[in-house]
Amino acid sequence: MSTQHPTPTPAAFPTVAVVGAYGHTAAFVLRELRRRGGFGLLLVGRDPSRLDAVARDHPGAEARVADLADPAALDRALTGAAVVVNCAGPFAATAPLVIDAALRAGIPYLDVAAEQSAVLATFERYADRAREAGVAVVPAMAFYGGLGDLLVGAAKGDWEEADEITIAIALDSWLPTEGTRRTGRSNAGGHVVYKGGRFVPPAAEPTSSVWEFPGAFGEQKVVEYTTADQVTVSRHVRVPDIRVLINEAPLRDLRDPGTPPPTAVDADGRSAQTFVVDVVVRRGGEERRASASGQDIYAVTAPLVVEAATRILDGRATGPGALAPASLFDATDFLHALAPAHLTFRPHVSS
């Protein structure tokens, strides 16, 4: 089934297929694509009524119904797309299906996965296949995975190896979407940390410490955490230990089944949540640091993945394969491009 709405997009514009187009993060992705202009939109999902409702909000977009488990239907849904952005979780289930379709179509693939297991599997399964197909496959191009990875790339500069990398995250709250909760349930027990140059199970009781964040967050009690950042960073920096730390307040919110979903507080649909991500790369007696802050971790995913898609399409990417963001893009230039509209970026300083 395909529903065409008025105001067709000029043929010269590249078309972006957004899979899972009626999800919370997808709404931000579609809004960012429309804000930038110059893109055709294909809305892909399995629920025709929800797709049609989204299409009415985006004149010129085409809604294409497809069950991701049906390769032929998915191939038809991606026909004419120049790139596909997968916003449909849980990604452990959806990513292989959509990546396979992208490879069959010969188009770049990006997703917004935060699941370590899904991101690890993407790199392990598709590194060679994507390179041989001449296609870029970029998992975790989102707040978790993408932003921290780009900050590491900006902080390390010309270092190709380090002794330790720490990614410290502070959120003033975490109002999780139902998709976040569903993904958390499906990924229970699948977490790892990166120690001694390999992925190992985390400690039963995470280590706590104190971190001095830049800006308003200041000193916070933090605990070790598991995110896609450990996976992405390990793909392009030779380092024995990658730590991710997070302050305690958002974890309390996430664990509380009564915590409500995010509520929009501005015209862009963002919640009031604020964040800062602070990265320190250490080698010998020297450390290099970079940080970024902003509003709403779901909303900031949209400019991250749209900027990535734009740079792949216009040739500002290093090459095909399953690649982490900082090995595919100029990390400092990328982050500067998002500031100040989407985040505040503090480039690396050495000490």
Strand-helix topology:
Layout lengths: L1 E3 L10 E5 L4 H13 L3 E6 L2 H9 L5 E4 L5 H8 L4 E4 L4 H15 L3 E3 L4 H18 L2 E3 L4 H14 L7 E8 L6 H9 L6 E3 L2 E3 L7 E5 L6 E6 L4 H6 L7 E6 H8 L18 E10 L2 E10 L1 H17 L7 E2 L2 H4 L2 H8 L5 E7 L1
Parallel strand pairs: 2-3, 2-5, 3-4, 5-6, 6-7, 7-16, 8-13
Antiparallel strand pairs: 1-4, 8-14, 9-10, 11-12, 12-13, 14-15, 15-17
| Rg over alpha carbons | 19 Å
Percent strand equals 25-35%
Structural class: alpha/beta
| Poorly predicted tracts of residues | 1-11
What is the CA-CA span between the terminal residues?
A: 59 Å
Main sheet: strands, sense, barrel: 8 strands, mixed
Shape descriptor:
globular
Number of helices: 12
Q: Say how many strands there are.
A: 17
Strand order of the largest sheet: 1-4-3-2-5-6-7-16
Name the helix and strand elements from N-terminus to C-terminus, one letter apiece. Answer: EEHEHEHEHEHEHEHEEEEHEHEEHEHHE
Which percent bin holds the helix content? 25-40%
Q: What is the residue-mean pLDDT, rounded to a whole number?
A: 94
What does the model show?
With 351 residues, this protein is an alpha/beta fold. It contains twelve helices and 17 strands. It has helices spanning 24-36, 48-56, 71-78, 91-105, 116-133, 143-156, 178-186, 229-234, 248-255, 297-313, 325-328, 331-338, and strands at 2-4, 15-19, 40-45, 62-65, 83-86, 109-111, 136-138, 164-171, 193-195, 198-200, 208-212, 219-224, 242-247, 274-283, 286-295, 321-322, 344-350. The chain has an eight-stranded mixed beta sheet, with helices on both faces. Strands 11-12-13-8-14-15-17 form a seven-stranded mixed beta sheet. Strands 9-10 form a two-stranded antiparallel ribbon. Helix 1 packs across helix 10 (297-313), helix 3 (71-78) packs across helix 4 (91-105) and helix 4 packs parallel to helix 5. The longest helix is centred in the middle third of the chain and has 18 residues, at 116-133. The termini are far apart.
